[in-house]
Amino acid sequence: ARVSHWIASSECTVQTGVLLGHCLHTGQVEGIENVSIADDRGHTLVANIYALVTGRPMALRDLVVANMAINAAALFAAALTLFLLGWKVSALLLLLAPNNVVPGPMPGADAPATHMAAFLFALVATLLIARIPIARSERAGVRWLALIVVASVCLAWATLLRQPYGQGGFLVALLVLALRWRQSARRGEAFLGVVPWRIGVAAAALTLATFYATSGLFALRGVLYDVARSNDAIESHGISHNLYMGLAVPGNPWGIRWDDSAALSHVGEADRVQYGSDDHYRSLRRGYFQIMLSDPLTIAQIYSGKLLESVIEVSRWSKDGHKVSLAVAFSLLLIAVPAGRRRKPSMEEITMLVVVWASFGVVLLQGVLAMPWHQFISPGKFAAICGFAV
Predict the structure, then answer these.
(1) Model pLDDT, residue 191
(2) CB of 178 closer than 8 Å to CB of 200
(3) Which one of 15, 75, 301, 326 is at 20 to 30 Å from 47 when CA atoms are compared?
(4) How far apart are CA 153 and CA 206, in angstroms?
């Protein structure tokens, strides 16, 4: 259904020139969130821009090609970022497995086709954050500002394509900033342990990019086209429903099923709140934390089991490109590890390892908190390849 909403929105763009809108039979334009609730908005925006440039609505075939192009752009952006940061061999290793990234693990017109792009754009953001100048002895200037802006744009785009990956990238970026603050504090560059203002500015920019990308677009739409934001429909995916329905493993003691409507009925709100509203997600969030506080041991058992299932699911989907990449990566490790024993790794190298393996952990975390399904954690194998390459 959401794909048909993207196409309908592109048809509306051809008729009216409005982005992120939906044309009514009366000729008026309403916000896309009124008809396509709980959706990530990147595909709608792509369909609108396509319609604006070509003068014709986007078709299913165009969406498939667009998804492949988005994945390809993300792959080359990640490789180029590593290359420019000085990790040239790692960059080349990423390009040895494009057959899984470029078409997408689930090629098609739907959102899961660009999960690889969402993961890779979030990875680019964290790689750049790992290299922004934060020490007082470093000259900031244009480079400092440019890296923050590009990282924020990449994180916002990852969020618009697949919100959990954007939020996961945000968590990794905060971890990297904390490591770098700790490093600067040890060097005596953080006054009395206070977070340097450059780190604070970076964290603020990433927060805005992650949590206000969608609402910012809708606000801009209102300014440009005088289309009001919806007051009773969710603007983007929340995480509350996945947290609650993520407990729906076979035999769970609460009788929870992976079904949005059933979950709302289970918490006793089916007849009192509108589906897709803020109250909907607030009710599921409240129900989740009540269960978590009342039975934490069962929650821990469920999550440990899903972690194992996520690892199995990630390793099961083997392709020839992955085998070649892993073989090359392990061969380089056999050469690099003995040679690296003669010197102490730099903080920069340790930070890069944290970035790539924490990004892999974010993929597994989505399988743990939601469900260890391939369409959710499809970037997992390539995320591991990134870790081995670095």
Answers:
(1) 59
(2) no
(3) 75
(4) 9
* Residues 63, 109 contacting (CB under 8 angstroms): yes
The whole model's pTM is what? 0.90
Q: What's the CA gap between 75 and 388, in Å, rounded?
A: 16
User: By C-alpha distance, which of 196, 106, 13 is closest to 376?
Assistant: 106
Structure letter (DSSP) for residue 228? P
Distance (Å, rounded) from C-alpha 63 to C-alpha 297? 44
Beta bridge partners of 21: 31
What share of residues in the chain are helix, strand, coil (percent, to 5)? 70, 0, 30
Measure the CA–CA gap between 272 and 283, rounded to whole angstroms.
10
CA atoms of 97 and 329, how far apart (whole Å): 12
CB neighbourhood size of 289 (10 A): 13
How far is the C-alpha of 17 from the C-alpha of 8, rounded, in Å? 13
pLDDT, tens digit, for every residue of 259-300?
877 887 888 877 777 777 778 888 888 899 999 999 999 999
AA identity, residue 340:
G
Give pLDDT tens digits for 110-119: 999 999 999 9
